[in-house]
Amino acid sequence: MTPAEEPRFDWRRGGAAAVALFATLVLLGMVVLVAITNSARDKALQAERHAYDVALLTRTADASIARAEAAVGRFALDQNAAISGSRYYAQWRLAGQQISQLERSVSTDAAQRRRVEELKQLFNERGQQFSDVARYSSARQKDYGLRYYYSISLKQGELADTGTRLRAKLVEIAEAERGALSQKIEESQFFSAEADRLTDYLSWLGVIVGLFAIFMGYIAVQALRQNVTARREAENEAERAQVLEQAVRERTQELWEANQALKAEAIERQAAEAQLRQVQKMEAVGQLTGGIAHDFNNMLAVVVGGIDLARRRLDGPRREVMAHLTNAMEGATRAAALTRRLLSFARSEPLLPERLDASILLAGMNELLDRTLGERIKVTTKLAEDAWPVFVDPHQLENAILNLAVNARDAMDGTGKLTIRTHNRKLQANAVGDIRAGEYLVIQVKDTGCGMTAEVRERAFEPFFTTKAVGKGTGLGLSQIFGFAHQSGGEVGIESEVGKGTTVSIYLPRTEAQASNVRTHPAMQAKAEEDMTVPGARLLLVEDDPRVRTATVGALEDLGYEPIACSSGAEALALFDSMEFDLVISDVIMPEMTGPEMVRELKSRRSDVAVLFVTGYVGEGDGDELVGYDLLRKPFTVSTLASAVAGAIARRPTESRPIGGAAAAG
After folding, report:
1. Rounded percentage of the chain residues whose pLDDT exceeds 70
2. Omega of the bond leading into 394 within 30 degrees of 0 (cis)
3. How many of the other CB atoms lie within 10 Å of CB of 198?
4. Of 575, 605, 574, 569, which is closest to residue 587 (Cα–Cα)?
């Protein structure tokens, strides 16, 4: 069977089946219509018979009432009192039965039921009149009874009107049934005609169905012949299909081999791309490591040289020894600042965020900026009065603004105009970098300097990338700002044009946090404070590095404390159970048990103990556990340690017990 012939054969079979189905449905429909028509005709004939019955009942009831009236008259004339009386009562009871039967016959017709009710009322009134005639006649008042009979029989007066209305009501009922009878006769004739017509249609339909059956037989014979031919062609097609299947199998094998070759090539390409990415990654790490090593070597040279010279001149003049130690301390401080910038770039710098009004913070930096930038830089601030609050670390934000101001000063070569502006802005997702959709406070620092080329702008956030001369900068300023903004949930954008200046925008998300939800440690503020101590305070120091632990114990003892030190969280818990402490100073990252885990256990035993965390690095996920506690960054000076310890003890929970020395003094 060829593809062109198969649809033709299906069409014939489908058409024949459709015609057969249609004829069957028409036949069923005609049968149903005939049944419905016959049923309607039977109902019309039944209604016609009912109308005849009602009319007959009205006539027989009228006749019975007339006979009863005649019997009453004969009874009043006393022609034959006994016979007349019995005939009267018999006819009147018969008339009552006929009226009751009439009531049952018209029970389905509301109008006729109402007429029958009126008829019964008139019948009862007429019966009462006849009873009065019979009673008067029986009481030997025949003259009065006869006169009363004439008064109710003759068509004069009110008493005679009851009989007239009774006959009129019977006529009304009969006329109503005659009207319904006429309608039913018309319906009966209509349905009879319809039934006859549908019967004729069925006869013709039977003839058509017979002819169609003959046609279907012819189609079946033709289909049988075509089926035989199709089988022969199918056998031929099967042979050709086998040949084609073999060809397809061979072609599939070729395609599979080609696909395997492509997969192998793809694997090789992926391996080459992975190797290239690894080379690029190692190159970036090498560049980062080289930059860090270069800067740290410079700073360590200052530290090592200063300490070595101080050791050599310990017996010399004190001024010379202090000068070398001061240089060493300055180098160490610069190294600590570099480390902090690296941590900020890596988003591992622990932040102590709080609800902050950036406009107030920026307004308070005017004096610092003027002193840092010099008199030849004009600083202008345009701060929005309705600036949205943000949830950031104030110290980090100050450093970011200060870094941008110093970069702007260098770009303007010490002379120009610096504008700091804030405004609110709603952003769509990815409108600036990888920023998420939402409401942001935008802090812009704009200068009138030399601007950036497109190549410089693309690499501006790379660590250790700088366009400044050697020794003028580390190349970590914008990297630190980039890390701070992303760690705070925001983004940084740069707009620059060569010769016209640069605008750096920091986008910080709007916050709904309340100002009382967080607090920052005074040691985080870039302000020098006088050394403070709390006499009699009991301190527990937990530090796993022995050198850091020794140095911290020495600093605390130099401040007048008598700390108890241990190297792990387990030792700290044992000491905490055996002694009472006012402050726990703990490192954050320690083996076996971290500082936050240890503090949670201590708080479950005694909630009023004060806690001071000391850290140089916060791992992923640990920063959230530090919120709400005082934090001191490594490295730190003795002065910073003193203020941190005093501040942590001062902010201990209100239910804490009084410090031993202070209590004794009080």
Report:
1. 73
2. no
3. 20
4. 569
Count how many domains the chain has.
3
Rounded Cα distance, 494 and 480, in Å: 15
Q: Is 539 exposed, middle or buried (0-12, 13-18, 19+ CB in 10 A)?
A: buried
| Contact indicator for 565, 541 with CB cutoff of 8 Å | yes
Q: Are residue 373 and residue 497 in the same domain, yes or no?
A: yes
Helix (H) or strand (E) holding 495, with range, is strand 491-497
Q: How many CB atoms lie within 10 A of CB 23?
A: 16
Per DSSP, 368 falls in state H
Give 506's strand partners.
443, 492
Q: CA-to-CA distance for 466 and 291, rounded, in angstroms?
A: 11
**pLDDT tier for residue 442 given thresholds of 50, 70 and 90:** very high
Q: CB neighbours (10 Å) of residue 529?
A: 15
Which residue range(s) make up the domain with 529?
522-665
pTM: 0.39
What are the phi and psi torsion angles at 211 (to 5°)?
A: -65, -40
Q: Which two tokens stand for residue 465?
A: 């990338």
- DSSP assignment of 499-565 equals TTEEEEEEEEEB----GGG----GGGSS--------TT--EEEE-S-HHHHHHHHHHHHHTT---EE
Cα(113)–Cα(252) distance, rounded to whole angstroms?
Answer: 92
Q: Which tens digit of pLDDT belongs to each residue from 42-66?
A: 777 777 777 778 878 888 877 888 7
CATH of the domain at 379: 3.30.565.10
